[in-house]
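Design review, sub-item: ligand-bound model
Attendees: FS, YL, KQ
YL presented the inputs for the 1-O-alpha-D-glucopyranosyl-D-fructose complex:
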Amino acid sequence: MASNDWRKSVVYQIYPKSFNDTTGSGEGDIPGIIEKLDYFKTLGVDYIWLTPVYKSPMNDNGYDISDYYEVNPQFGTKADLENLLEAAHARGLKVMMDIVINHTSTSHNWFVESRKSKDNPYRDYYIWKDGKDNAPPTNWESKFGGNAWTYDSATRQYYLRLFDVSQADLNWENENLRREIYEMVNYWIDFGVDGFRFDVVNLISKGAFEDSDGPGKEFYTDGPKVHEYLNELNRNTFGDKEIMTVGEMSSTTIEHCLKYTNPERNELNSVFNFHHLKVDYPGGEKWTFADFDFIELKRILMDWQVAMDEGGGWNAIFWCNHDQPRIVSRFGSDDTEENRVRSGKMLAIALHGLKGTPYIYQGEEIGMTNPKFTRIDQYRDVESLNAYSELKEEGMDNARVLEILGTKSRDNGRSPMQWNKDRHAGFTSGEPWMDIAENYGNINVESALEDKDSIFYTYQKLISLRHEMDHFTYGSVVPHLMKDNALFAYERVYNGETITVIANFREETIPYPDGLDTTGATLISNYGDRAGELRPFEALMLHGQ
Ligand code: TEU
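KQ shared the predicted structure:
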């Protein structure tokens, strides 16, 4: 039964380009999402979140928007989007759209005008600066590698682009720009959208433009006016409406996220933070090999859980998305089918007992793995291709670079959805825009639905429990075993009752720990029965009175 309370809701994230192709183009489309609405109902989710489907040159697969008001023809038409909303609403499903308001494509008409002259009315919609001694204005680094400024010969100035060269940062100091953004958000609210995910929205307020020893994040992350801008956005658009909002907060802090999500501040409902997904970035370095730091993973998860619970904030809880490797390959084990299924279920149980709004990324519910590409021509993502060039230029051998991309790249989460055993996993009748993982004959939706012991039914059960039991929504969070090298454990306490979650992250049998009450009734387990010890990747959710 779907939930009307956004705090009891579960969100399914769709990367449309890789979800379901109905035209044979080799790329997913909006009619392909409509085809699968009953699948979402079977799973039991409440919202579907589409990553951007607006007009875009697709240099960053839609996060480079050239027209906020038009649907990218490769995904379909605006009528298709209307049909999707209508068909979703008819099933009690809500639709969350992804809005990118930190930057636009350099193909957006605002930027085309802005670059024409220094006195163009749109000049100040973006951030233009003179260089210094033929060098960029500051030494800030782009998140996709290289310097964050690009020189434009038309007016002999640099423009700021924290991401790709084709993604120019908007100047939120400009009141006319802000007003145009609010008008656009209201357009999509009037269109019938039920929620928004705001892309890197904590970067919209840039502070001082100074050099730094590091990449410059301290000047634009959670910037000086970010809360003011979000409150103004709220008041001018969704603030008085039943619209669920979530902000993607890059490199943020708990303190800021308590402010972003404090209901009394009228900013956003909830936030994504990514610190728990950097525990395999030694020294903050993504492009290297490293086992994930399990103790640090638990510390970060629980710090955020307890702080946001006690401070009245609200987390998005998630393992992966279109920017992350597949979680079963990253924090679980995909070396055998038994380990993949057990650890895939374990990760689901470990996460879905936490406080916040759970997000399930397409394919996570069937335990899709990293596609294990072996050639650079299989990669599509601008960040991956930039990293490949940079690592090779630094002298790293090709095989090593490919190994690193194969574990860390965003492409890992973007290989097409695996629907069935048919050609191209039933994703397309054409040639897929990106190779499909070779294991689709075994890992696909059709097989998962036929197998009552599949990972899919673990997610279905967890979603049902969250809808049924207020403990998950309102219960306090009590961490346990924070220094244990194998077990992740916590309690949710509500109305004198306790839900205990315990997950063995190791392929070893571990004795039950002392000091944790594991006498409760089993709500869900990935082994289906109880043993006198915790078996490899065993996870339990217990309900004690
Ligand atoms: O992601 C922002 C972001 O922080 C990640 O891209 C991260 O910086 C990157 O993966 C390095 O590890 C959002 C979108 O989710 C992403 O797809 C876009 O590429 C990016 O913003 C720019 O819009």
